[in-house]
C-alpha cells in the first residue's frame, strides 16, 4: 500500500471514529451515514485506480476519488457549523483539504497525458 492509499484509509477511519461521538443526535444520523460513506469512497476508488486497465480508467477513478473527497469536505464543514467545534474536526477538515489538493494534482497530471 502506498502512502496516499494509507493516508486515505486512515482519514476514513478517523472520520468514522469521530462520528461515533455525534450519534447521540438521531436527527443527524442520515448526514452522519453520508459522511462515513463519502469519506471511505476516495480510498476505495484510489485503490481501484492502482489496478486500472488504462490511463482513461485510472483518470476516471481518480476523479471519482476527488469528487467524493470534496463531498466529504462539505460534510465536515457542515458538521463544524452545527456542532461544537472540536480539534479533531478541524484536523479532519485540514486533512480533507490536503487530500483534495493531492487528488486534484494527480487528476490534472493524468488528464494532460
Largest sheet: none
Query: Strand tally, please?
Result: 0
Question: What is the succession of H and E elements?
Answer: HHHH
CATH architecture: Up-down Bundle
Low-confidence stretches: none
Helix proportion range: over 70%
Number of helices: 4
Classify the fold: give the CATH topology.
de novo design (two linked rop proteins)
What would CATH call the class?
Mainly Alpha
Structural class: mainly alpha
Q: What's the rounded overall pLDDT mean? A: 92
CATH homologous superfamily identity: 23S rRNA-intervening sequence
- From the alpha carbons, calculate the radius of gyration and give it in angstroms: 15 Å
Whole-number total of structural domains = 1
Short synopsis of the structure:
By secondary structure, the chain is mostly helical. The protein has four helices and no strands.
Describe the protein.
With 113 residues, the chain is mainly α. It has one domain: de novo design (two linked rop proteins) (Up-down Bundle), CATH 1.20.1440. The protein is 81% helix and 0% strand. The chain contains 4 helices and no strands. The radius of gyration is 15 Å and the shape is elongated. The mean pLDDT is 92.
Amino acid at each position: 500500500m502506498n502512502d496516499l492509499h494509507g493516508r486515505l484509509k486512515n482519514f476514513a477511519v478517523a472520520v468514522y471514529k469521530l462520528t461515533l461521538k455525534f450519534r447521540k443526535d438521531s436527527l443527524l444520523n442520515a448526514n452522519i451515514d453520508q459522511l462515513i460513506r463519502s469519506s471511505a469512497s476516495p480510498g476505495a476508488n484510489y485503490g481501484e485506480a492502482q489496478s486500472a486497465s488504462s490511463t482513461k480508467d485510472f483518470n476516471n477513478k481518480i476523479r471519482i476519488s476527488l469528487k467524493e473527497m470534496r463531498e466529504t469536505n462539505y460534510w465536515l464543514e457542515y458538521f463544524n457549523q452545527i456542532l461544537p467545534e472540536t480539534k479533531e474536526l478541524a484536523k479532519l477538515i485540514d486533512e480533507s483539504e490536503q487530500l483534495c489538493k493531492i487528488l486534484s494534482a494527480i487528476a490534472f497530471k493524468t488528464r494532460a497525458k
